[in-house]
Amino acid sequence: MGQALGYYVATPTLIGMVQSCKNDKASEWTPDFLTPDEGEALTKLVDIILPKTDTPSASEVQVHLFIDKFIDQVMEKEQQDFVKMSMGQFLEKALKDSGKEKAGDLTSGDLEPVLSEALKVTKEDDVKNFEAIEQYHEAIAEGKEPLLDDGISRFAFANNLRGLTIWGYKISEYVGEEVLAYLPIPAEYIPCEDAQKLTGSMAWSL
Amino acid sequence: MKGLLKDLTMKKYYYNEEQESYDAIVVGTGISGGWAAKELCEKGLKTLVLERGRMVRHITDYPTAYKDPWDFPNGGEPTQEDLKKQPKQNRTGYTTNVASALWFVNDLEHPYNEIKRFDWMRGYHVGGRSIMWGRHSYRWSDIDFTANRREGIAVDWPVRYKDIAPWYDKVETFIGVSGENLRLKQLPDGQFLPMMELNCVEQRFREKVSQNFNGRVVTAGRVANITGTKKFEGRQHCMFRNRCIRGCPFGAYFSSNSSTLPAAERTGNLTLRPDSIVHEVMYDPDTKRATGVKVIDRVTKEAHEFKAKVIFLCASAVASTSILMQSRSDRFPNGMGNDSDQLGRNIMDHHLGVGAQGKFDGLEDKYYKGRKPNGVYIPRFRNLGGDSDRKDYKRGFGYQGSAGRGNWDDAVAELSFGKDLKEAILKPGGWTMGIGGFGEVLPYEENRMTLDYDKLDGWGLPTVTFDAEFKENEWAMRKDMKESAVEMLEKAGLRDVQPFDNPGALGLGIHEMGTARMGRDKRTSVLNGNNQIHEVPNVYVTDGSFMASAACVNPSLTYMAFTARAANHAAQQLKKGNI
């Protein structure tokens, strides 16, 4: 957009583009599974989890697209329902705390504290959380009323999202080839050597 | 140009034109079929090899061989749409990854019936499961060959190690197996290429197990991948990409496609016809010999008959047994060679999915280069006499496993999110190690497959019904497999050691066998010690069907050795005019 502004004269036909540029929307992407508002929030969340440093942020390597597509195509219906429910709980808290009404209006500043709180768990809580989540799924399987504490739902969403974000980031083409150590055909096996010598202490991408 | 197009679209026969009749017919092109083709062709027999599935040319037809995770949608995970076609194949949890799913059947096109759950994992194409196999190759010892007799279980093997040893030599030498000799009575030594070295943590595990468990050994897996400098026709050494299951463009691991079929082709005696579903062996009651096979073309559904002097059934245990069951006549109302009523019975496998994994602190500055398609192997250490004998179960188990860096749980928990987390997950991660056992399943007469003529497949053939399960001996063994795994990892200094125990069902080991067992007595077995059907000596069955017991080691090397031996026997018998 900035390039367009520098390149073209801002004629009336371009005013619409300039105005949309002034909005805070990170993208004009229409998700396959999530609602557009949820998609907005997802885009910001993945960048809170893996922000831009001297390497791209998660959204810069399309992790938000990857996750939405993954939920849509790979997950079973029950897993999709769980994502919807737990993400719903997460966004509800963010809206409540920020006083906003539309999830699409949530900023990174609104989302970060909710993420932070959701992921702050002790090792004991971690175990309890997973037990509760397992019971929730068992209840569904048995046709019973499934119940899950709101806080644990938010944890479940945040934790799942973080896992998918990390995985999606590391298997993106840019990160796999340019950031991590990329060696498609090693041709030999060296069983035990200094990491610094082999990869500059970066992980192999493959 | 027109002729070339015709050739590509109409081509049914490869390497030679269709013949009037053949010296030999081989059914199946997998681990055993490829060897039968090679040996029979090399003995000068004009051999027709029939494969029910599509053609697969070495290298040209490995579409996923070079793909990276970002080259697949969803990182290679199958979609729900994909899984609608492979719900049973997906029970393995890994074969249906997009990189390898093309090698496994469409379950909707190839249904089967389960009285009890049975996981039947296979693919139908030239090369069979020799394309997707795990490549672990271990010899049997006389402890295995004599087990049935010593314990009064099922029937005695009609052979002993000394009968098979020269054929193990021949096979290992031809296919290339990497490994080290250990001078263990329960795991005979072999003809090995240099073993794949153990990484830092695997090496440590090997030392600790040796120190803490008297007589127990940790070695590298003996895998059929080329290492070292020995030359193999048309093949190159392993490039350590760990993508074997996709088909190897370097031919670095053994498959029919890279190794035995080219050898057969080089003799000029091979005719290969893919898309050929063999459904019956034809029998002449006057000569008391098989005369050939009946085929339905997979694509056109046309019927064909092919004649030969000797038939090798190498379609895999369930498939070869099905063919025999479908070969009914006045002489053999219950299927060819089934006077004993053992055809379809005694189905075995290896049970697996039990072991442990843990985390290793330390060696943070160490890493490996290359993706080794292999790890450690722990040979059987139970029921070998003396202190090793157990009261709670018979036979034994081995383990496969590996160590690697790739655990970021602790970093994730501590750093939560943000730039510090990002930095951490781009580093190698913590060391972990896991081992999983492969346990022997006993032969039970009541564990069986039958054919259902009321449920026919798309070619009008009966579907297979499985009625088989794990029993007491297997469950008791698994308890020890789990506990021993935990014990070994803990003694090696790993922490947070977690056991796992997911038995799945029979079949999940993808080593199904035993459905046309060999034996000394034709009243209790289908085949003799030369893999011939007792009553039809010009039919040899050399895939997993022939196994009278299962041992605990991956069986493919044994199938190959018995096949080479049987093929050479058949060639001799033909020359002498005995069959």
UniProtKB/TrEMBL annotation, chain B:
Taxonomy of origin reads: Bacteria, Pseudomonadati, Bacteroidota, Flavobacteriia, Flavobacteriales
What is an example of a Pfam family matching this protein?
GMC_oxred_C
Q: Where is region (Disordered) located? A: 69-90
Alphabetized PANTHER family for the sequence: PYRANOSE 2-OXIDASE (PTHR42784:SF1)
Task: Give all residue intervals belonging to the Glucose-methanol-choline oxidoreductase C-terminal domain.
Answer: 443-562
Q: Spell out the family assignment given in the record's similarity comment.
A: Belongs to the GMC oxidoreductase family.
Ordered alphabetically, the record's keywords are: FAD, Flavoprotein, Oxidoreductase
Q: What name does this protein carry?
A: Choline dehydrogenase-like flavoprotein
What cofactor is needed? FAD
GO MF annotation terms = flavin adenine dinucleotide binding; oxidoreductase activity, acting on CH-OH group of donors
